[in-house]
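User: Please predict the structure of the protein below. I'd like the answer in structure-token form so I can feed it into my own downstream comparison script.

Assistant: Understood. Taking the following sequence of 247 residues as input:
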Amino acid sequence: MKFLATTAAALCLTALPAAAFDIDKMSDSERAAFRAEIRAYLLENPEVIFEAVEVMEQRQAQAEAAQDIELVTANADAIFNDGFSWVGGNPEGDITLVEFIDYRCGYCRKAHDEVVELIESDGNIRFIVKEFPILGEGSVLSSRFAIAVKHLYGDEAYEAAHNALIKLKQDATKTTLGRLAESLGHDKDALFAAMDTDKVNEELNATRALAQRLRISGTPTFVMQDDLLRGYLPLQNMQALVAQKRG
């Protein structure tokens, strides 16, 4: 409560004209009386505290959203046209949705089917996947596997591997990934060799550097046009955002 009262008082004071008072020029007694008036007012009108905090949070959210737009604009080419990230959905779509994903992330798994439904039901969304493994060795192995599949077997094979990895129930190890490779009809030895190439390292490092510039620390993180959306979003929210983007 002390924090809320201090915050509310600060907001009230900053709302006053600059020339209304100069607290530094007050005498000790004037300053004490002034503080007592603020305290009495807040005790009599406690709802003001929460109203003030809500205003402050709204302003912070607006400032963060504006900052995120600047980050997306400054990094647009790396986000939307890096030349290596898989592009699905409608490549000519009027809306572009980008997802930074980790295959071991529970919320990425929760979002997966909803993202698929959004793209398939809409039909006019360009979808880009950014491999961003941040949850340990299993995540890194999974992303290396997916990228290697793309390099060796193409985009359709990558999509199948991507969908299989996001639903993989076992831990991602060389053994389980070897079985997955065989179930997808791929040469596991060739895939394991491709997973450790400089080309795979370069893609992972480029995406990691991009995420750092965008101040992304968790998955899933989405970029829809110029909006940076941090965290899981239900299907209805994504549909509403698409409609909003189209005006």
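That's the full token string. The chain has two domains: 2-74, 84-246.
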